[in-house]
Amino acid sequence: MLDQEKNWGMLLGYRLYVLAFFIFLAAPLVAAGTFAFNDSLFPALPWQGFTFDWFFNDTEPKLGMFHDRRLLRGLYYSFIIATAVSGLSVFVGTCNAFLFTRREFPAKNFFYIMMIVPLVIPGVILGISILVFVSSIANGIEESYGIELEFMRPGILLVVLGQFSFITTITTLVIIARLKKFDGAMEEAALNLGASRARVLMTITLPFLRPAMIAAGIVAFLVSFENFNTTLFLVGSESPLTITMFDRMAKVGSTPVLNAVSFFLIVGSGLLALISILIQRDRSSE
Amino acid sequence: MTSKPDFDLECSNVSKTFGPVRAVDDVSFEIPSGSFFSILGPSGCGKTTLMRMIAGFENPTAGDIRIKGMSVLGTPPNRRNVKMVFQHLALFPMMNVYENIAYGLRCAGAGKAEIATKVKDVLERIALPDVGEREIHQLSGGQKQRIAIARCMVLDPDVLLLDEPLGALDLKLREAMKIELKLLQHQFNTTFVYITHDQSEALVMSDHVAVMNSGRFEQIGTPQQLYHKPASAFVAGFVGDANRWNGRVAEARDGRARVETSAGLTLTCTPGSGQTFRPGDAVEIFVRPEFIRTSARNGQDAANDGAGDDGLEGIVDSLLFNGANSRALVRPPQGEPIEADITLTGGPEDIRPGETVRLSWSPDQALCFAVGTAPR
Amino acid sequence: MTSKPDFDLECSNVSKTFGPVRAVDDVSFEIPSGSFFSILGPSGCGKTTLMRMIAGFENPTAGDIRIKGMSVLGTPPNRRNVKMVFQHLALFPMMNVYENIAYGLRCAGAGKAEIATKVKDVLERIALPDVGEREIHQLSGGQKQRIAIARCMVLDPDVLLLDEPLGALDLKLREAMKIELKLLQHQFNTTFVYITHDQSEALVMSDHVAVMNSGRFEQIGTPQQLYHKPASAFVAGFVGDANRWNGRVAEARDGRARVETSAGLTLTCTPGSGQTFRPGDAVEIFVRPEFIRTSARNGQDAANDGAGDDGLEGIVDSLLFNGANSRALVRPPQGEPIEADITLTGGPEDIRPGETVRLSWSPDQALCFAVGTAPR
Amino acid sequence: ETLRLLTWGSYAPEEVIKMFEEKYPDIDVEVTFSNNEEMIAKLRATGGAGFDLAQPSHDRVYAAQLEYDIYKPLDLSKIDTSVMQEKLLDGVKANTTIDGKVYSVPHQWGTSGLMADKSKAPDVSGWGDLCDPAYKGKTSMRLKRTILLGTAFSMGENPFEAYSDLDRYQKILDKVVDKLITCKDNIKAYWKGGDDLSALMLSGEVVASETWDSTAYKLYGENPNIVFVPPKTGALAWIDTFTLPRKGKADDAAYKWINFVLQPEIVKLMSASTGAIAAIKGGKDLMPEEKKAAINAAFTDADIANLQFFANIPPGVEDMEGKALEKIKAATGG
Amino acid sequence: MNQADFKRLSLILLFMPFALWILLLIILPHIGMGVLALREKVGPRVYEFGFGNFIDFAMEPIYWNILFRTGSMSLLVTALALIAGFPIAYYIAKIAGRRSRGALFLVCLIPLWVSDLIRAFGWILLLRETGVVSSTLLWLGLVDAPVEMLYNDITVVIGLVYTVILFMIVPLVSTLDGMDNAMIEAGYNLGGNGWTVLRRIIVPYAMPGIISGCIIVFMLTAGSYLTPILLGGKNSSWFTETIYEQFITRYNWESGAAFGFLLLAFTSFVVWLGLKLSGQTLAGTVARN
Ligand SMILES: Nc1ncnc2c1ncn2[C@@H]1O[C@H](COP(=O)(O)OP(=O)(O)OP(=O)(O)O)[C@@H](O)[C@H]1O
Ligand SMILES: Nc1ncnc2c1ncn2[C@@H]1O[C@H](COP(=O)(O)OP(=O)(O)OP(=O)(O)O)[C@@H](O)[C@H]1O
Ligand SMILES: NCCCCNCCCN
Ligand SMILES: [Mg+2]
Ligand SMILES: [Mg+2]
After folding, report:
1. Does a structural domain hold residue E250?
2. E95 and E205: one domain?
3. In the structure, what pLDDT confidence band is assigned to residue B296 with cuts at 50, 70 and 90?
4. What are residue C356's DSSP bridge partners?
5. Distance of CA C81 to the CA centre of its chain
């Protein structure tokens, strides 16, 4: 009996710890989001009253995020970059998944580790190395041929490539996990029922992978959207949102409009994450 | 055109090697149209490999495979009219039942209306008329089984291959499906080739069974032939239960042999088909538990023995009550315990552990084979 | 101290509810020291829940559990001297065999030398003396099984619980392990409580079997008692094969009942233990296939029937050859096919599909029960 | 066509951009906020591509151009230099002429100095006062070269003169580093951007700090106790310039922008946003009233005469200063 | 024959994207960085080959200090993340009910999808002297003067733990999820108490997940930039910041590249050491989830 109570007490303590942890997780986000509604020029206490100005007001000094051209432009670039990155990384991730789960080739283990490596290289270094590499090629070309290859200069393309370089590892792992659960007999069954190889791919294998591809795409999108370290070095004049916000914070001065953006992103990413989890869960019930 | 072939499926001298492994070794057989043919063998003996060659997923290293008389060696799997039920069924989880069955028809380019009719038809034939709209995960194990068969049968295959389709089911369901499969085969009247390592499945369902061991066919025959007239020690040991002794021939005459077992017993046996012995040959003797009569010693003594019956005494080690299939483990003076089928009614006449009993059997039922192929 | 208890394990009126689900419902039993006790029941009937209460992973909602006469209700699982073999064995994959077995001893604070001796000892007793250094994944299924048992037995438990330990094994291995488990129990002479939904496992191995259904014990008895004297329709249907008819009592007297089945047959039966009927009662009749005699009609006709035997004619639908356990499916004039055990020798006297045969059995072997508990 | 500006935060107010785009409907303005170091770094990475107009400070053009070749010479004929204050124009030209070609013209100027909350820190008057134990834990500075220079001046050295003799400069730096490391204890935090600083000052968490004058003026509007304090050794004056990146693609638009923002009515808007004084004649008068007041509260004429303009940074100095700053950052002071 | 050709062709086609990705975006850039690191700047636009940048590093204790500081704080953060995250992962995988598990996991993930910047921003709003926490404490009367909780190493550690803990929890949940509950019950059944079961069964079983989480967390921490910059105090240098400074404020790409290389080598060495000590492999841990 005594033991029972002790157990119960411990479980309660455990639950409280878990609760405290989730409060810890939520606190800064709640703080960042809440101040979006503070009717003040500074994102700080005291509370000056509730307002939606930081979202919708269209005049300085309380220019709302939906009227702030630079933030909107940042959002737009982030969106373009994230879309490109997720498309590209899901495509390559899918190829990789097939490569590593379906094929045998020499030094496969080594290549597998190479595939993992980008995930553990510090983002700053990824950014730098790509910047240095591409710039030196571009400089070389300029010096020898006098041709300026603008796409090899910091800008959207390099940002996309930089993010792609490590996000692909994530998408690959997500898709591999799914493909490993695929019963190869299913493809043989389809062949056996008269389908051509292409048809098998389109009607059996890819539909089976689709939830993982969507989930991987969402993950890639979100990771790209929030990436800072790699992007920092590769960005040109088209700054995505995180860079814009950082510049704003460090170089201009933050108003609660940054909180408004944060609020917007927290809610948006939360929804996307929810979708990706639902998709993942949906298929696990099979 | 050639005359109508007599056999739906013929394999001649088919072999398959994977590197050093000889998975299938010079296998030949033919299957008459409309029959239920099983391939029975222990795990790893090459059954699946053989079936995959028939379906076209592997190319034979040597030999020829003919379907309806035509060689299919160059034909890719999706063009062979041989359909297959996979061990784990491989139903498509992203499609419902209707779409699963329609899949093959769609691949063949059938029209919408035709597909609808055929699917409806086949669902009725497997007695599941209303499950078309169900998702696969909403089906029970037995229903899935039938859908997997329907998915193949709707394409009207020349041969249906089944690779241990009952392996994943639970005990009671497996029993029920055995009978059901046989009925379905009757109904569709298509040639079934059924793979299993469970001898009772093979015996119960098949018209003909091939016993396979290490890539080779040891014997092809009806279930009765395999059971009662095994062609090799392996078949004798693998099909049905049997007590087994190793020994050396002491004397051989009149189609009988006297054998000294390594444990020291002397037994009389009948050489298996095609076997002849000379004294000194190493042999293995097989006696099925159901051919052994068990009698309490204090009873009529050896009176129960037939003329020339072999018999020995032993102490009952334990009783394995299993209703109609009960069995006694009897420890003879020398060697391993002997299994004998008995009937336990729960009455006072039942034998009990610790009793001394007399076991006897007819030498006709004691088959012996030269030691060669090591049975499992 | 009280006098030495007679029972290793006693449960009295144990119940367990999960929210609205009554998983175990007022179960009482006691197990004599050193015996092999099985709990047999269909999936979901509450077997695992009961066992988890004994092991201490769940607390009973009501009732008491005593081990060696002492209530263990307040004792946490790691202090109960009841060890458990889990369904999927739950061997620790990150430890090798030696460490797996040594784990419990280490927890008990045994010294290094003592551990080494004991592990060596138990490995010898399970006839695997040399596997100590192997990793778990290097063992075969049967070896794993034995290690899981050794891991418990090395701790010298009062009771060993086994939760469907053979469920994950393949067919041949399962057969072999049945006998082996029984031998191990003999050897250790410890009380085994064995859970299974496979009646043949329960019957073959156990001294006593409890049949469980929907949380309750339907009957406790020796295998023979369950098989020959089932206490309820559920037990009659679940233990062993049986043909089954539903019907209404037309006449009841002299410890017999005449029943009109819903398909229109008239059968005579013996009420199961404790049952009495009046005309009009709905009953279920059970007849085991092995009690049905089959004779070719053109032969001695009904001459084979004993006095007062029930009999009917039917057409052989199909023959399920299975060596000693062959069976015929016979379609009577009305109703479902009847299964009857037959002997097929491959000779001309064998019956064949399509023949008309006469089936007969003694009314003593036809048990009937009032319709109530719906058997599976 | 797009005009890609690489400039300081607040140097391209939304209103000004709107007006510019109204005037030149075919030009789209895209702004990237940056600072001196980043401007050079970015342009270095692209070899001078990616932007059409940059605004580095006057002292940061010469060496960067020599080292990395990232700018192109201005076509002065396209700029209305007549509106500019000659002294500033000539100063910038002198600083940024290479091989006879001019690379920059001035846009706005201002100073770096001190800021103090008079009610809490009335006695702050020199760079060294940030290290005054009286304000322990309540001062701040930006860990960049300005504070090195300021501290050097406060220790009686003239770092700009020492630029010609790097060994001597190194000695000065060593002294400065020691001083600032001891000072660390006194400091609450190093600020990184105007926002940081504003928050620190307004909340009263910090009472005296090194600052950009513009930030101080802004805060004066919020709290008149907070004033800009030109250090006794002279406020450090900077001139932010207009400079064309070497591979800019919209030079015409860039010139249009330059001329556009130098118009008095635009200057008004600009200065209101930046808090800096336009380098045009009468630039100070175009400041908004409250900023003018802030300036008047901060500067006497003597202070103006005392301004120390940043001198061109010769190659090598950046490295020395960088290391000095790292040393201070890494030292565990308090 | 035909089929073999098809197989080879499709293998090549599948291998291409992978090869291009790894070669062009990972291997060559890193080689390029290595080459750049070996260029010594001897004057304006004058470079020569040499180890000068590395020698500079070796001769300058500041850099060593920063690197070790970064390394040791990253290890601390990793350890804290493991200690704090393990119970959470265990709760999600083993204790939470079926339905709440998904929800908890989701809640765990949300911060993951919001940028570092916003997270740090949130912490600043909470922890600064005039921030929410301090004000609340003041209001509750628990302190009598505002407390500064920003700008010190503890804050940086907390902020980093916050940023990376999810990368610890995710692999832990996925390994613990794969652990049969019966294994834990067997641990108790055989006489183990809570502590023995944890130490001898749960932790060894979760080892691949633990190592995988630790590697990712360590690398992320050592490579993080915003959090230490934004939350760090006057003494807090982070090695990535030093790299950034080399590149951006000192335009010294050569030494920046060398530093980048050193960071990579250093962290890789730590990871390698960790794998060696725990007897795990990269493919068996990080690659598993
Ligand atoms: N693709 C392959 N590569 C190499 N060896 C193989 C391959 N496929 C099968 N084998 C080997 O060929 C032999 C026969 O395998 P097969 O799968 O046909 O056996 P099986 O009779 O179906 O066994 P089971 O009853 O276990 O399914 C085995 O030794 C197996 O290891
Ligand atoms: N933790 C639980 N919470 C709620 N219901 C439970 C729980 N455990 C078991 N049950 C329910 O109790 C009943 C008995 O379950 P139990 O696992 O004991 O069955 P079982 O006889 O072991 O079945 P099986 O042969 O399938 O293992 C089932 O209806 C099950 O759904
Ligand atoms: N060291 C030169 C500083 C130049 C500062 N320009 C500042 C603009 C601030 N809004
Ligand atoms: Mg197989
Ligand atoms: Mg169970």
Report:
1. yes
2. yes
3. confident
4. C315
5. 25
* Ligand 1 pocket member B49 (CB < 6 A): yes
Task: Assess E162–A contact: CB distance below 8 Å, yes or no.
Answer: yes
**Best of C164, C166, C170, C171 to mutate (most B CBs within 10 Å, chain B):** C171
The count of domains in chain E is: 2
Identify the closest residue of chain E to C55 by CA–CA distance.
Answer: E189
Task: Point out the residues of chain D with pLDDT beneath 50.
Answer: 333-334
Rg (CA), chain A: 24
Question: Which residue type is seen at C271?
Answer: P
Question: How confident is chain E (289 residues) per 10-residue block, as mean pLDDT?
Answer: 75 92 93 89 76 84 88 94 94 83 77 78 84 85 81 88 89 87 89 88 90 89 87 81 83 86 89 86 65
Cα of C31 to ligand 2 centre, how many Å?
23
Cis peptide before A46 (omega within 30 of 0): yes
**Closest by Cβ to B92, choosing from A186, A192, A285:** A186
**What is the spatial distance between Cα D41 and Cα D45, in angstroms, rounded to a whole number?**
6
Its sign, for the CA torsion E208, E211, E217, E219, is: negative
My answer on whether E134 and E159 are in the same domain is yes
Do E99 and E26 belong together in one domain? no
C215 Cα: distance to centroid of ligand 2 (angstroms): 10
Answer yes or no: pTM beyond 0.95: no
Q: Is the minimum CB–CB distance between E91 and chain A shorter than 8 Å?
A: yes
CATH number at residue E253: 1.10.3720.10
Partner residue opposite B324 with nearest CB, options C204, C290, C321:
C290
Question: Does A169 reach chain E within 8 Å, measured CB to CB?
Answer: no
User: What's phi and psi for B298, nearest 5 deg?
Assistant: -65, -10
From E146, E233, E248, residue closest to D37, measured CB to CB: E248
* CA B84/CA C156 separation, integer angstroms: 51
Residue C60's pLDDT band, with cuts at 50, 70 and 90, is very high
Domains and CATH numbers, chain B: 7-232 (3.40.50.300), 241-372 (2.40.50.140)
Residue nearest to atom 29 of ligand 1 (CA): B44
Q: What is the ipTM of this complex?
A: 0.81
Contact B77 A191 (CB under 8 A): yes
Instruction: Tell me the residue range of the domain where E11 lies.
Output: 1-37
User: Which residue is closest in CA terms to ligand 1's atom 24?
Assistant: B43
Q: Which of E285, E236, E116 minimizes the C-alpha distance to A123?
A: E116
Q: Is the CB of B196 inside a 6 Å radius of any atom of ligand 1? A: no
Interface check for C55 against chain E (CB to CB < 8 A): the answer is yes
Model confidence pLDDT, tens digit, residues C251-303: 888 888 899 888 888 888 888 887 888 888 899 999 998 889 888 765 555 45
Is E205 close to C93, i.e. CB distance below 8 A? yes
Q: Is D41 on the interface with E (CB under 8 A)?
A: yes
Cβ neighbours around A264 below 10 Å, total: 18
Put simply, whether A269 touches E (Cβ < 8 Å) is yes
Selecting from D4, D35, D195 the residue whose C-beta is nearest the C-beta of A237 gives D4
Give C-chain residues touching B182 at CB under 8 angstroms.
Answer: 318, 320
Q: Which residue has the tokens 């080779």?
A: B216
Nearest atom, ligand 1, residue B42 CA: 25
- Distance of alpha carbon C215 from its chain centroid, rounded? 15
CB contact under 8 A, A236 and D46: yes
- Amino acid residing at C222: T
